[in-house]
Amino acid sequence: MIRSAAHILVDQLIAQGVERATCVPGESYLAVLDALVDSGIDLLTCRAEGGAAMMAEANGKLTGQPGICFVTRGPGATNAAPGLHIAMQDSTPMILFVGQVARDMRHREAFQELDYRQSFAGLAKWVVEIDDAARIPELIARAFRTAMQGRPGPVVVALPEDMLVETADVEDAPKVVPVVPAPTPEDIAALGDLLRKAERPLLIAGGSRWSVEACAALTAFAKAHDLPVACAFRRAMLFPADDARFVGDLGIGPSPVLAQAVRDADLLILLGTRMSEIASSGYTLIDAPAPRQRVVHIHPDPLEIGRVYQPALGINATPGSFLAAAQTLSSEPGWSAHRSQLRSAYLDWSEAPQALPGAFQYGEVMGWLRERLPADAILTNGAGNYASWLHRYYRFRAFGTQLAPTSGSMGYGVPAAVIAKRIHPDRIVLCLAGDGDFLMNGQEFATACQYGIAIIVLVIDNGMYGTIRMHQERAYPGRVSATALANPDFAALGRAYGGHGETVRETAEFAPAFERALASGRPAIIHCFLDPQAITPTASLDAIRAAAEQREA
User: Fold this and answer.
1) pTM higher than 0.85, yes or no?
2) Which domain range does residue 417 map to?
3) Listed residue (382, 457, 378) closest to 420, CA to CA
4) pLDDT value at position 404?
5) Which of 134, 169, 204 is the last residue of a domain?
């Protein structure tokens, strides 16, 4: 069948099961925009490429299939770079399609020309420019496989403008099914030997290539062996927090009891996680390259096993294939008291919020949300100290309910919430954002209003870039520089976009404001004023400054 290159490309997306895509339109790929008409693909037009790319990354997180994003050449592509970086560090399948100048203009620094291979080599698993329409099925199939297989990640595909209007007679590629590495019987036997010798085991779950079924299998595995389970940074949704074997998550400022449990473990089972800088508290919880603990590292990419920590046992497997094979394991747990102590410590750590300065007690609000929200509610966030309350006091209970960048990128929460609600319109989707964080990609609230995507955004406003201010007070007490913010009325901004807006200054105002926002059926912003002194769940700015001044003295 003779088709234009643009139609061949869109037909490949359909063949690979793509249901939705995000974009900021551009003249460099007008032919693709035309081919998408009547394709059945749900195309969301976004307000900035960074937001569009983050939506695609969040789509990949939720579905396990590559999130698809289209942007134009040059500045459009570079504006999308933050989404690529998130996908790379978070191991998320994603494909970014970018327009390119016509082939006869390349290497002249034509209008908005960019060498994509050079520019994105360190931000993507693979970068390719398609010069021949007849090769589109081959290269798109490879892009999908590369994005999903091994350790998932982003792929960049450049599309020369003139190539897209050429025609070719070529068949579609078959649907890609990524290879699933699995443990050998010897791997499982070796793990069984290590488990039988253990006295203080700990399993840490993280990474990607998880599913509802794999999470259920992990819960069953932990129950069968009474294993304490922790989750890596921003992967708390992998294990239900209401299960007696959940002992917390390893993020920024983890529970001291949990951090010590990692150090003291005689057997660490790292399932899917890389245990990178944040989860390992700056690579201090596990010695590199030779850990004190006996480490079993299970990962779908063999290149990640032993990359930092040399394990006692490395197993090349996805979480699901490992857990299926591990059903045959038997053990006689002698660590139930140890597991119970870790569980009690987690409950104490996450239960009663400390009162901090101000009329709006953020910890109490998180406790209320923990009781109010159903298990399938999806919570999103970007970066900032405001997320500390969420990670400490909220308890995730189901897979697919947490969308947050392990890369620590700001501006992620709003676009992630938009795509999550588009995929799951029947579920509550709540974005938490700081005042600085919201204004990184808050323009995507307009996208939510345009498409009637009823997200709820909590803007936690303390008038500063709080994380950086905290570090300033620790390192340079009393010398404030570049961290103060003058903000708009975010509730009024929500109404100006066509959504619902609420203002909350006191704790008691929050619950009714939330219920009104939910009942409105429209995208909503709840503007919450947090006292600037309430900089962390446990410390004020003045206390951090005083401690720093005392150290200097």
Assistant:
1) yes
2) 352-552
3) 378
4) 98
5) 169
